[in-house]
Amino acid sequence: MSDNTAVANELKDKGNLELKNNRYDDAIKYYTEAIALVQSAIYYSNRAQAHIKSENYGLAIADATKAIEIDPAYLKAYYRRAVAESAILEYKKSLADVKKVLARAPKDPSCLKLHQDLTKVLKTIAFENAIAVNEKQSPIAELDFDSMIIEAGYKGPELQIQVDKATKAVSTDLDLKYVGEMVELFKEGGKIPKKHAFAIVCVANQIFKQEKSLVEIGLKRSKTAASGELQLEGCETITICGDTHGQFYDVLNIFSTFGDTGPNHTYLFNGDFVDRGSWSCEVALLFYCFKILYPQNFYMNRGNHETNDMNQVYGFADECKAKYSHKLFLCFSESFNALPYATLIGQEYLVMHGGLFSDDNIKVDDIRKIDRLKNKQPPKQGIEMELLWTDPQPEEGRSASKRGIGMQFGPDVTAKFCEQNDLKAIIRSHEVRMGGYELEHNGKLITVFSAPNYCDSQHNLGAVINLKTNSDGEYDLDFKTFKEVPHPNIGPMAYTRNMGF
């Protein structure tokens, strides 16, 4: 064994230990150092696994492909490439790689499970395509509240539901007392009646549909508000939160730590409130209740996980089915289509889930012009996709996405966009940050992530941004971090189609 090989194996072993302990960045560093010494299929394949755990699926595919080039017989590389391909919804490519493994290892349990999951999701997609109905058909419009009954034995809060015969608009007597009792019911492992859940989604959807694709809000200050901006009279704080991913107990901790939403405290949740975590229904219903109670003080941007293809794999669709019904998921899906894509605060801070664009000619006004109700799901390319999917990079310019979807943009792209649109900064989410938040691109771009100890494994802090006005009438940003809180003994991904990730 050469000296290089011996050192590389030691680095690989260190990487394996870091991977086992969920320290994925450190694992990637050690594997990279090993690869610099020896071009080994094992090292590339192991780094692919670390990238999978970091959700860098594009990089994982590249590493697994390199491992296969070095050793076409190395089955782990095919499996890991299949896992990464399934994570970015490339199901047919994933299935092809799985079949290559099973041709030589027909009893491999991981591959058999992935094959089963892929076959199931492909059948589901084929079935949905076969029964695809007119774009104008609405699951929410088909709801018949008169025919719905409250489940036997239900002892939770009551909710009166009315439907206007002329307009078909739905209304309820939802109040804070109901929400408080609903939360306690959820904490005990209970559910509200399906009829209540349908009504909450329906009423929230009516409110979302009245909002613009770009919501424009601001705190009252000496400066004259721009046309189209809603100044929040009496509001002292706007709290911006990143991904929460079904971590219901951490969401409750956000409100208990930083204050309840209401006329003097506005919240903006910046997408990805469902999937992965095992209480996505509870988080979504709570957020929708707050939207109904405080439509001008509670806002939600769409994330890449508020989409059908992600929900089918990462848990929300199956969670809705398990806890309520598949039809409730269809109604949630319709309401996700009405969520705004971005929020502009005081004409100075643009908040979206993913990031900036592949075209320098895109302006804030182009977000205003998005007809989000035109499509049932976001297009696979263009401004809507990029608002949901793109990520920053430290290098100048643009490059292919480490995720395998969208692209990455550098500090020059951010600086130019902010200058052209007279913005102080971009605020986005979409990625774990170990400290809960990070100032990037010379302070022109801020990432905030609000799911602490993401998926019970990342050991990251959560964070929020409190935006207030100072004595000069300017906005100040105050970054607050928090740790995870205990939750019932149900792990993340309980409703996820495993797919190996």
Euclidean distance between termini CA atoms: 34 Å
What is the topology, as strand order, of the major beta sheet? 4-3-8-9-13-15-14
Overall geometry: globular
Largest β-sheet summary:
7 strands, mixed
CATH top level label of the largest domain: Alpha Beta
Task: Quickly count the helices.
Answer: 17
Radius of gyration: 23 Å
Proportion of β residues?
A: 5-15%
How helix-rich are the residues, as a percent range?
Answer: 40-55%
- Secondary-structure arrangement, i.e. CATH architecture of the largest domain: 4-Layer Sandwich
Number of DSSP-assigned strands: 17
Low-confidence sequence ranges = none
CATH superfamily of the largest domain: Metallo-dependent phosphatases
As for the number of domains, it is 2
Broad structural category = alpha/beta
pLDDT averaged over residues: 94
CATH topology of the largest domain: Purple Acid Phosphatase, chain A, domain 2
Cofactor: Mn(2+); Mg(2+)
Family: Belongs to the PPP phosphatase family. PP-5 (PP-T) subfamily.
InterPro entries: Calcineurin-like_PHP, Metallo-depent_PP-like, PP5_C, PPP_dom, PPP_phosphatase, Ser/Thr-sp_prot-phosphatase, TPR-like_helical_dom_sf, TPR_rpt
GO molecular function: metal ion binding; protein serine/threonine phosphatase activity
Write up what this structure looks like.
This protein is of the alpha/beta class and 501 residues long. It has 2 domains: 3-130, Tetratricopeptide repeat domain (Serine Threonine Protein Phosphatase 5, Tetratricopeptide repeat, Alpha Horseshoe); 145-221 and 236-352 and 424-482, Purple Acid Phosphatase, chain A, domain 2 (4-Layer Sandwich). The chain has 17 helices and 17 strands. The strands form 4 sheets. Strands 4-3-8-9-13-15-14 form a 7-stranded mixed sheet. It has a 5-stranded mixed sheet with strand order 7-6-5-16-17, with helices on one face. Strands 10-12-11 form a 3-stranded mixed sheet. A hairpin with a 4-residue loop joins strand 14 and strand 15 (445-448). Helix 1 (3-20) runs parallel beside helix 3 (41-53) and helix 6 runs antiparallel to helix 7. It is globular and about 75 Å long. The two termini are 34 Å apart. This is Serine/threonine-protein phosphatase. GO terms for molecular function: metal ion binding; protein serine/threonine phosphatase activity. One of its GO terms (cellular component) is cytoplasm. Keywords: Hydrolase, Manganese, Metal-binding, Nucleus, Protein phosphatase, Repeat, TPR repeat. Belongs to the PPP phosphatase family. PP-5 (PP-T) subfamily.
